[in-house]
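Researcher: Re-running this chain for the archive, since the previous output was lost when a drive failed. Same request as before.
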Amino acid sequence: MVRKLTASAIVATSMWIAGIASVAAQQPEFSAPDPVLINGKVLTLDERSTMTEAVAVADGKILATGTSASIKALAGARTRVLDVAGKTVIPGLIDTHAHFKAAGLGDYVVIMGRAKTVAEALEAIKAFAAKKKPGEWIVGGAWHPPSQLAEKRYLTRQEIDSVAPDNPVYLRTVGHFSMANSMALQRVGIDKTTADPNGGKFERDAAGELTGVLVETAIDRVEKAVPPWTEDDEMRQFTIAESVLNSFGITSVVEGATEARDIACCRSMSHPGKPHCAPA
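Model: Regenerated structure tokens:
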């Protein structure tokens, strides 16, 4: 059955190129492919940058490209024939600098990137805290309050306390600042008498009270107190990240910063014939 694809303007084939072959040369060796994509603009990215109309896939590998008629002729009774209606089909993309696991943290951290005001940021923390037990750490995802929020500033510990009084809260940013609420500071023994570390600062207000903003090396004191993810958590994060990246047509990434435990986790998830999360 022929089906129309209407989901996106670009259709990315999330499988590895296993060699672009002509239909005529390999047709006798084919088992019925699944799926086949027809009526598209297939960018093969071969040495001649060939553009064709259709592609046949089997077992996650591209078997052949050619005209829509020649590729459709390979379809078996159970083959999905996808009519991409002139859309562009490309091989899987490779991101050459990514923070892979971060794409899988949506269920584990407060998503702060969508907040546009202090009130929205606090509401996101409040909603996340409602799902946590008292005393459990709450960690925020990457964001940049001064450029992101209408108020052009960081959150204070008192503001964070107002929506998460029963949990230690630690909010990372994409810069050289982080934020912590009162319970998080108490967990690591920081109060207004604590001296600033070399190369860092515990920000204070005009009255000398801690604001909860941590600068440069002062971040480490709280960062190191946040419990690491369990192995099961990390495996799930990698699995989620794969799905998120695949949804954008990204099938391989080069990790920008990889810890030893991440490599070990990837190795434990790697299985022969199932190329996911395999360290190279």
